[in-house]
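Agenda item 2: flavin-adenine dinucleotide complex prediction
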Amino acid sequence: MRLHDTLRNLKNSADIVIIGGGVIGLTIARSLALRGVRDVCLIERNNLGTESSFAAAGMLAPQAEANSRDDFFELLCQSRDLYASFAESLKDETGVDIELDTTGTLYLAFSEHDQREIDERFEWQTRAGLPVEKLTREEAKLLEPRISPNVSGALRFPNDIQVENRRLLSALANSVSQLEVQISNGVHVEKVRTENNRVVGVETSAGFIGCSTVVVAAGAWTSFVDSKIQVEPVRGQMVCLSAKPQLTRHVIYSPRGYVVPRQDGRLLAGSTSEAVGFAKEVTVGGVTTILRNAIEISPSIAALPIADTWAGLRPRSADGLPVLGPCGEIDGLVFATGHYRNGILLAPVTGELIASAIVQGFVPRELAPFSPDRFAARMSDML
Ligand SMILES: Cc1cc2nc3c(=O)[nH]c(=O)nc-3n(C[C@H](O)[C@H](O)[C@H](O)COP(=O)(O)OP(=O)(O)OC[C@H]3O[C@@H](n4cnc5c(N)ncnc54)[C@H](O)[C@@H]3O)c2cc1C
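Presented output:
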């Protein structure tokens, strides 16, 4: 099935309705169907996989920017480590290669300040027994000859990898279609209907659908579906360059930006973080900043043609952490949102844990720190 195909025979009931056909909604739909849940309906108001998940860079890099070990870091690493088998089973199911590239990630330092930052990161991650290598300028240049001569040192994270997120979306769309998930593109969910603190269905632009479980995977638009969960859009712009032959092998970060080489010769340069509501424009300021930071990483970038630009809206919750699991107040209401900068990375673990919570009826231990109920608890503390 292609991303833009539409199945419009909307039924008026389902066991489980998923709101949102981005990487999160699709992965949950697949995980539920693989567990034998037969009557899953995924509702997407546009076409599958056309919002934040399409705009992303596909980096699966929990270690590169982490300054400490906490529940969130563990969840990110757990999900990254699921990717090899996730990619393999998607290939078996659909024939789509999601281009999981395991070359690794470099993080470059240019100033004393940058160097202190990477030294500290190296120290805590080494103490924690995580795989990380410290490189001199010369060692970094040997690995990636086109990086700037101004690099003072670097870290290499061999387990921080990347995936072609648009191919991932195609693979997931194919997979859920084969697994007979009912997909309704072009249908907008207006409201989750509840009675006596239980979900009874969703009101949509195409009518009411009765169901006992709803998964809200609506990304940056989550608060329109349920205003108790505050999720705001954070715009990220991206510049796509044409680099044939490819300029780098690794994903390369600096503290200010990153470049991601794709197998087909695209080189993605990102990004910005802007609180500008739901505006998805690409701006002169955004592109200028991204290109300045990319050229700092590799001056050779200045000679590359610009192939494309775009922007997407990262879903950020009130505390910046994902919102995952059943809502204590309403039976049958489950959230899988607020993945902010890491939704591609977190997709496999989100799919596994949310599907387990629904099918087995208890919340896996890993989800506890991310429960939607943490916001209700904070609100009652404030009263
Ligand atoms: C520039 C940029 C770079 C990024 N790079 C990375 C990266 O390298 N690695 C990484 O892990 N993450 C990255 N991210 C973050 C990642 O893209 C997001 O965290 C992830 O895509 C969120 O997935 P989602 O399915 O929740 O949201 P989305 O992909 O936005 O999907 C939500 C879907 O819900 C639909 N929807 C909303 N409301 C309704 C409704 N009422 N009814 C029906 N449908 C509805 C929307 O139309 C949309 O399709 C990046 C993001 C951006 C913008």
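Discussion summary: Confidence is low (pLDDT under 50) at residues 1-8.
Owner for follow-up: CH.
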